[in-house]
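Ticket #983: bound-state structure for 2-acetamido-2-deoxy-beta-D-glucopyranose.
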Amino acid sequence: MRHDSPTHLTMPKLLGALGLTILVSLTLAKDFLGSLPPQATDLSLSVGSIIENATQEGNSSGCQGYNLQTLQEDEAGLTAKLSLVGESCQAFGEDIVNLTVRVTYETATRLHVNIFDTSDEQYTIPQSVVQRPQQIKDAYRQSSDLVFNYESSPFSFWITRKAHPDATPLFDTRLKSMPPTPIPAVDSSDTYKNTTSLNNLSFVFEKQYLQLTSALPKDTNIYGLGEAVASSGFRRNLTSTVQAMWARDVADPVDENAYGSHPIYLEHRFDSATQTSQSHGVFLLSAAGGDILLRTPPSGNISVIQYRMIGGVLDFYFFSGPSPKAVIEQYGELIGMPTWQPIWGFGFHLCRWGYQNIAETREQVTSMRAANIPLEVMWNDIDLYHAVRDFTSDPVSFPGEEMRQFIRDLASSNQHYIPIVDAAIPKQVNASDLYDPYTKGVAKDVFIKNPDGTEYVGQVWPGYTVFPDWFQNNTQDWWTEALRNWSQAGIEFSGIWLDMNEASSFCDGSCGTDADISNTSVPFILPGEPGNFVTDYPECYNSTVSGPSGNITVNGTLTCHLDTAVSVSLNKRGLGAGKQEGVDLNTPQYAIHNGFGRLSNHALATNATHVDGQVELDTHNLWGLMEEKATHLALKSIQPGKRPFLISRSTFPSSGRWTGHWLGDNFSLWAYLRHSISGVLQFQIFQIPFVGADTCGFVGNTDEELCNRWMQLSAFTPFYRNHNIKGAIPQEPYRWDSVADASRKAIAVRYALLPYWYTLFALSSTSGTPPVRALFFEFPDEPELFDVDSQFLVGSDILVTPVLYPNSTTVQGYFPGHGNVTWRDWYTHEAAKPTSGQKLELQAPLSHINVDVRDGSAILLHAEPAYTIEETRQGPYSLLVSLDFAGKAQGNAYIDDGISNPPGPSRTLTFTASQNQLVINGNGSFSIQQRLQDIFILGVTQVASNFKLNGQAHNATYDATVQKLSFSNVNVDLNGDLTMTWA
Ligand SMILES: *[C@@H]1O[C@H](CO)[C@@H](O)[C@H](O)[C@H]1NC(C)=O
Ligand SMILES: *[C@@H]1O[C@H](CO)[C@@H](O)[C@H](O)[C@H]1NC(C)=O
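RESOLUTION: The complex was predicted; output attached.
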């Protein structure tokens, strides 16, 4: 397996002579090939020479920063001109002599500090790619929560809160407050001169190297900076984090760069003297490759964050919070709110790589129905394609007309279909090999080019390929037409799955214009094929049987014990640069910590050229975002009036406006079950809230217990899909009785909670409020929660405490609120024993996931969860009210047709309970067809009587053991108001 994979995984015995080859090819699963690229051995050699080159030229010890020349204040902020101090420092190339600092108080909570080259030659992100507010109408300078402070010589700045001018600044680039000792080196391989000299904390602004360092309190809490599977979990490690920003096709590595780049962090500071906290956010709007480091010097009492970017400008935004939720909302206000999801998207999705034909695909639908496990959306991976080409279906195994019928059959049962779309477009092999998307694309000139203007050729699943240039004006229409034609040819999709869009390419850089395009194979063996059977035993099982078929029988002995940490290593270094003259597109001097080494490795070459001369080096991190926007717009055109449903792999700030995300190619390991929670939480910060992991794990063989726990956990994450690699043992939830049982139970809870999920996502799309929350988002003053990522909240009211380790029948979890909040069990309605800062142990037998409801809440539910979202929605509602100590509760529900785009009429219901009275008010013109059938009120401490519904006597029952009052069959019309009383 990968050198950084868990070492305790039991490997099967493999055929002796071929052993080595197979070990390598085992790692080469689809979508993440790059986990050990074919050029792996060469790589270490070239990394050596890169380091050597850096040694020769990297030097920032002489960098003295910039001095302020002029400064002009205005209504909205200020503009300062800076000039380089002394000789150019040449840390990694040419210094930029003249800089401009534009400070704008954009809103009361958002401060914009843009430091750019005065001549405006560095790459900046076009508005068409990431749209942000341009006209700042009002001047917020006076009313801003934040203050920009500066020193002239050398120039430095710091950000404070207006209300706390003397508190430790939120961001502070002054050298004098910096530690006397150098920042510890990144890792043992990080001893070359650039890093040593970069321990110098100077502000550096060069064409291909920008460095800025800010002090952080040593005991602070940092979240975000991704996309990352961090060994530290959701909260980032302040001593060892090196987050490289370079979109990368790799199976979820630990502590390395992955599919998306998100240079945003949320910082949460707790003041132990006052026992209160405040959060703020810092966002660097940059598409450049780079490293963001968190470091804590051994002496001194601060930590630092250091940005090392290899291009672009330093375009910072600061968000004042002061609550964690507010920070995330303020970020959403800047980059745009998440897209509205069609309500069927919340159903259960089933996929795998390796459904070989339409019959096998259909069989899954039938088997799910037979097992009575709700299936909302059936997916196909690239097996669907003819010759692995986008926008096709194989004429033998997935004929178009049969697919049309299959998808229509799904639709008639209120189910949906989603196919994959890969980033790369295959070249035609010869003149008789007609492939319309390619020829039309050539005619419309939509593909990325080499610097000399010839077609850029890469290699992906279909063989040699080209790649859409989203900057080209014709590309949108060409892409929309390709999707439309595909749909008309029978693949009548409801949504689209975008894969490989980092964008990935198997050649190291360009494959060259003389590549033998008749070769349509990939340079490795696919999983499940001879030579690459997925025969690794599920974690926790000893290997006792190893069959050559790749389909192993799991009858080993359970050997797992509580987890050992996944081993972590940074591996290779890469290179990165700018658009203007004097820029090295291929080998920028500063080597960012790209896990694949060279930036062009397993990706497009950094000199691949877009229209207007924009180069891949500057725009690489934007490829996925731009494809997502184009696909979203295409779907809007193909399915007018409906909300586009997209799930995509490579993301960038503002991707949430267009798409949801899955957490990429994970592993069928318990560690990745745990990582999935941090991943979902991280993407709440990134404003791509519709996210989830490949349930039961993608790479490797899963097992019953892991799949059981994972099907339960993912039922409480926004995107809920089981997906498996080709060649591994099947893992659909009906394959094991216990998993089927766990799935039915968890999905029933999920579908009951659908009105709640939907309301949370409406709030997300309108206000940017994160639907899934870390515990401290809701309880920011409880420090024991700052590092908790083994539990999470759905909204503010549903606490999920999943089992994350094998062989467990109990689980421990916090019940936040320090004893002032009553949490009631979802299933039994029993109240948990209040605690203060201590964990409770809960029973957690297989197939049971602990879910608790916060007091003071009122949650609208579907009373009768059904097989599909549509059937569930056709059933009646119920209302679960959970009173707090004061006998109060409050909640609301947003209801609309679940599909219209833009959203049409809606109705928002408000539930308010106090003093033995529950009032339901509604607002909005949407007509709710389904009635409210039952009302449950928890926390009614005394035997109640004299029940009235809108003044009329009504029956109710009272259960003293759980303090529950139940009004059954009230049959209330939710288009009117209601008052219910008890005494
Ligand atoms: C190192 O520098 C030399 C001389 O400039 C250059 O020829 C070589 O390609 C560089 N190597 C790498 C890996 O950047
Ligand atoms: C920097 O700005 C100064 C003052 O405007 C100007 O004289 C000088 O030519 C500029 N230098 C460069 C390298 O642009």
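RESOLUTION NOTES: The chain has 16 helices and 46 strands.
TICKET STATUS: resolved
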